[in-house]
Amino acid sequence: MLMRIYRKIFPYISSIIFFALLVCCSGCKSAPPVPPGVRPTPPVEAPSPEIAVEPLPGLLVREDRCLDNLDAVGRQAIATGATPGAVILVGYRGVVAYRRAFGHRTLVPHMTPMTPGVIFDLASLTKVVATTTAIMQLADQGRLYLNAPAARYWPQFAAQGKGPITIRQLLTHTSGLRADVNPRLSWSGYDGALAAIAADTPVNHPGTAYHYSDANFIVLGEIVRRVSGLSLDGYCTQKIFRPLGLHHTFFRPRRDQAALIAPTDLRWGEVHDPTAYRMGGVAGHAGLFSTADDLAVFAQMLLSGGEYKGRRLLSRTAVAAMITPQVVPGNASRRGLGWDMRSPFSRAFTASFPSGSFGHTGFTGTSIWIDPDSKTFLIILTNRLHPNGRGQVKTLRTNAAAAVAAALRLGRPAASYGSKGASTMTGRGQSDFPDRVRTGIEVLASQGFAPLVGKTIGLITNHTGVDGTGRPTRLLLHQAPGVRLRVIFSPEHGLGGDLDAKVSSGQDPATGLPVRSLYGEVKRPTPGMLQGLDALVYDVQDVGVRFYTYITTLAYCMEAAAALDLDFYILDRPNPITAAVVQGPVLAPGLRSFVGYHPLPIRYGLTVGELARLFNRENKLGVKLHVVPMANYGRQMWYDQTGLPWVNPSPNLRSLTQAILYPGVALVESANVSVGRGTDTPFEIIGAPWINGARLTRYLGGRQIAGVAFEPTEFIPRTNRCRGQRCEGIRLRLTDRDTLDSPLLGIELAAALHRLYPARFQLDRNLGMIGSQNVLAAIKNGVDPVEIRRGWQHDLDNFICQRKRYLLY
């Protein structure tokens, strides 16, 4: 709050100072007085010198004339008053292809020219250049773990419910911490800021929402200090800046360096960020100063897989992990570890650079953007806040990124991270960071595919069958020495995972192999489809819910393999909503169907490999089953704790938040209501033309359902149920995924709709999803949903006992 107030009023205060200085200077040869706390500029008679150091040591400067169009971009930014000055640098395939300065370093009290070696306040670039790099170095060394709670390294941080917050969540802004140090708390100094954060309560439950936060990186900076025994600035100087030869990158500039620094507003050589300033100039989120030349060396180190001039700063696996998309719940943003890949802050770059590129921006007008595939980086440093805080560089960033992309032809078809498609990675080295989960396909690959060598196989897979870097399992098996992949089988939604109808068979364009649909004319492989095969391999990402059809396809394929005495291999994958929680009514006898193969509860708490073991024994299938287990997996993990990139398992499950809500909201979707299919937020909204949203919200709010909150909403589905109709209803906001009983939520929704709209809501149509005639009858009879849950507990306890025999983790 203080920062927002400061940023609103400072332009007006600094404008008054600026014009007062102009008045004082009118008709006077002497320099105007310098405001208190502002360091004086060097005499204008002697232009400020270029930094006296060889630019870009180890990087060849060879300017490319095709980038001359950037000159017009830079000049336009100066001419329009967007910023007094700028330095633009482009690196391309190991050389500096463009390096020029525009405009002025200072306007007040004297005008001095901008030069390429000027030092800038990097603002939030501190988060990635300093803090993220330090954290990843310590993780590389095994001194901290990304999935570990931050409180393991800073015990006081656990107060006020912050104990579960992990290092990974801090890096990805999903910790739930507020944007800054709590403005309602009085504090001063570095220790005061830490005490205020430790005493604060999260604004969101950890892992449930993306909320950009400086506090996240203040915490990470303190963890660097506690783990390494060095202050953040001391650590970065010794372990990052000095090894790279970054002699003009530092916190807390010395007074004699002011002549080489571009001022922010009217401050000179002191960090602009108010919180970092109050903390003494060193913080994990802001405070770093540097030049375009030094940042170019840093960017080249990342493009070289963590190494520069023979010095290794980071392992290749750590670099790959940093730029692998992480889960950002309930938000279209995409972030790596620390780094921005797509967010409102980076639209200027993502509009022109291809998917898979990454970077960061800073409030003072700084930015860096890197494309690993083309080995390109764009650095833009400006003093946009000087002298009155009013400059803006969005247009400069947008135009510069477009000019670079056009000149170097960076635009190309690339993997989609959008809500409509699968999230994949292309052109990457494997992101096998030490504590990341390795899926079954990655474990199999590490074994040289030995169990499959010499076998002719069929593969059951779809778009979710990828390794940790996005490489499709079908390509890995097709190229594996000694493995003969002959046919691919696809479940519901097709090989690409984007169809919401019956799926035809066809051919895989990537391998040229035939693709046999198991959601078209047939739903299980016929003997003819399996002729000549020695084994079937299954690699599909499930969502951990009884009525998701992928697990029925699994069971049907196991039956077919058993009938022909084929080996059956499961390449195991995480249960996205944890394999530790078991909830909901168990499917009743007589209700088996394609959305209910086995008497399972709604959340069965098993991985797909464990589930196959249960199917094989409990249904006496007799298939020769082999499960290739994951490495580094813990059954309590939510998907965003695995280190794996999120891949939409089907067209209408586009985030982990939606997958968590799905076991509840889907219990009513067979009736005459929309659950958001055909909108941008499926399974986060429920409505119908006949629902009063405010009334339903009040009723459900009064039920005090743990882990979720409700608010009224209106929407018009583009497709599916209620298509083109204005619907009123509710929006569900996940507040605590660990306390949410999602099947109970579904029963609460069904009971509310039946109670409020008994003549309109078609409750009986939900029997197949609920899976219990007794539960349906209890809803009709007005039994309280909490009592209904007690009624299914006996069967649930029996299943939990049965389940224990099949656990692998």
From TrEMBL:
Domain Peptidoglycan beta-N-acetylmuramidase NamZ C-terminal stretches: 660-809
Domain named Peptidoglycan beta-N-acetylmuramidase NamZ N-terminal: residues: 457-656
Gene Ontology MF terms: peptidoglycan beta-N-acetylmuramidase activity
Residue ranges annotated for the Beta-lactamase-related domain, each copy included: 75-401
Family annotation (InterPro entries): Beta-lactam-related (IPR001466), Beta-lactam/transpept-like (IPR012338), NamZ (IPR008302), NamZ_C (IPR048503), NamZ_N (IPR048502)
Coiled coil: none
Protein's recorded name: Uncharacterized conserved protein UCP016719
Gene source species: Desulfobacca acetoxidans (strain ATCC 700848 / DSM 11109 / ASRB2)
